[in-house]
Amino acid sequence: MTFQKITEQNSLHDDLDKKSTRQLLIEMNEEDKKVPFAVEKVIPEIEQLIEEIVKRMKIGGRLFYIGAGTSGRLGVLDASEIPPTFGMPPNLVIGIIAGGDIALRNAVEKAEDDFEQGWEDLKKHNIDQKDTVVGLTASGAAPYVIGALKHARENGIFTASISCNPDSPVSKEANIKIEVIVGPEFVTGSTRLKAGTAQKLILNMISTITMIKLGRVKGNKMIHMQLTNSKLVDRGTRMLVEALNIDYEQARNILLIHGSVKKAIDAFKMKNKV
Question: Could you tell me the pTM of the whole model?
Answer without folding.
Answer: 0.94
